[in-house]
Amino acid sequence: IFANRLKQLELSSPPTANIAEYPAYCMNDVSETDETNARVMEWLLRGKYASADGLAPDLLRCQLKVDGLALSAASPELQNNRSIVQQAVKENGLALQYASHELRSDKDIVLKAVRCSGGALEFASADLRADSEVVLESVYDCGSALEFASEDLRGDEAVVIAAIRNYGGALEFTSERLRGDRALVLEAVRSCAFSLEFASAALKADRTIVLEAVAQNGLAFRFAADELRSDGSFVLEIARQAVFGMACTSAAAHLLYAADTLRADPGFILAVVRLDGAALEYASEALRADRSIVLNAIRQGPSSLRFASPALQADAGILAAVAVRRCGRGRRAVSSTCCVAAAVEIGLTPLIASVAAAGAAG
């Protein structure tokens, strides 16, 4: 589309001598919201009708109606023109980066920019990045824009709460003091599980906060304190929370970051696979070769056999147990065909499935 449009523009003669109508000509038969067409227009304006001093004012104003970032092609004089810069940041707040240093210190212009794109705070003057009104407007739109606020405002409770309500990960940019605020961190992890990484050491060991984080994503458990990742009862509590519908993650996901001692503990792994057979994936190599543990995992979820040791994957009795679970028949009624189908379905190779099925049938 891009290449064809350029070719069309190269071979065509503009239908009008009125420079203000060139953008309309470029937009012919294409939606104004189409990104490809916006790039074509930029090419046309920069390559065909821009002088060494930048785009002509009338042409620039037309382009700004479609793409505020066209301010980048303006002359320094026009980048310091209050009216033009206002038009640019109203269409795209990030156009503030192309405004003159003087206008980046203009509160009205900066407010328009951050209300359109909160991230435009990055390009505001230092004084305005320390202005609570400007920063609040910015984080209302984009919580991560807190990164560009002054150090004082990153420690301001009202500003930080507004940022975290927009994006929990903004906790990364808060002051050390507020990273230790329990209520604030709790709200952050409910919004973004991985913000647990930026909580204080004490709150990484807080059971309620860690439970909230892993309820959103089990992989956030990697940021919990070592004492919790080594606590068998707590890790089981997380698994139960997932199984009984109080979490948005599987019962097994957090086990990737459980302590190695727990992953090698037969009693612990047995308890977890009874909740979620897929937890077998995170057991130690020795326990994935334990017949009793694998059978319990299969009873909970047949597909967990893919995490068992190669020897048990080819074990006739284990495969028959998978087939029983899959086919819903009594042990004596399981056919070799059912065994093969069950094995292939969970990802075992046909050869292994056939060999094991023959043993099961025998």
Main sheet characteristics: none
Average predicted local confidence, pLDDT:
81
Order of helices and strands: HHHHHHHHHHHHHHHHHHHHH
User: What does the radius of gyration come to?
Assistant: 31 Å
Which spans of ≥5 residues are poorly predicted at pLDDT below 50? 9-33, 47-52
Span between termini:
64 Å
The amount of beta strand, in percent, is: under 5%
Helix content: 40-55%
Q: Which structural category fits the helices and strands?
A: mainly alpha
Number of strands: 0
What is the count of DSSP helices, taking H or I runs of 4+ residues?
21
- Gross morphology: elongated
Detailed description of the structure:
- This protein has 362 residues and is an all-alpha fold.
- The protein starts with a helix and ends with a helix.
- Residues 9-33 and 47-52 have low confidence and may be disordered.
- The protein contains 21 helices and no strands.
- The longest helix is centred in the N-terminal third of the chain and has 15 residues, at 35-49.
Summarize the structure.
This protein is mainly α and 362 residues long. It is 50% helix and 0% strand.
List the keywords.
single chain; 362 residues; mainly alpha; 21 helices; 50% helix
How does the SSE layout of this entry go?
Blueprint: H1 2-11, H2 22-26, H3 35-49, H4 57-64, H5 76-79, H6 82-91, H7 107-116, H8 132-141, H9 157-166, H10 182-191, H11 201-204, H12 207-216, H13 226-229, H14 232-243, H15 260-263, H16 266-273, H17 291-300, H18 310-313, H19 316-327, H20 336-345, H21 350-361
